[in-house]
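Students often ask why we bother encoding 3D structure as a string. The short answer is that it lets us treat folding as translation between two languages. Here is a chain of 167 residues written in the first language.
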Amino acid sequence: MTRRRTKSGLNRLIATCLLVIASITSASAIAATEQKWPYADTITIETRHDFATLVTRVQAAVKESGLFVVTRASASVGAARREISIPGNMVLGVFRNDFAVRMLDASVPAGIEAPLRFYLYENTDGTSSLTYRTPSSVFAPYNSEALSTLAAELDEMFAAIATAANR
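And here it is in the second language, the structure alphabet:
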């Protein structure tokens, strides 16, 4: 009888441990799906501006900063050409040639990261949001002091652009 009780107690202990492990695993999976952005140092600013206004304001802030919008991509514009309406969104690639030269001098493989991007998107309430990854986090994997110096300059510029666009 003692052996049976011990075995039954051990089975309950194992079952409890498995239940705890399953609940921890489920909680981790839920937390991972609730994370809004997959990369560290991703900044999102929820603005009061409608989408078209935010696009105009970001483009003006980029120009004011001395950087340039060098690429534009928009699923909503492409969808509209197909007579499909989706909420406004746009990716603006932003950089400047002297930064590109410095970046490539520091790390040729880092060239895949340029231009750095702002993502603008329309929210369901008619406002829009602005998201970007900090340049220092984008360039961190390349382990280059010169690239880190460049990224720190760009961090300040990107923060200033975002702030100006949100005014």
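Translate back mentally: Strands lie at 42-46, 68-73, 89-95, 116-122, 128-133. Keep this in mind for the problem set.
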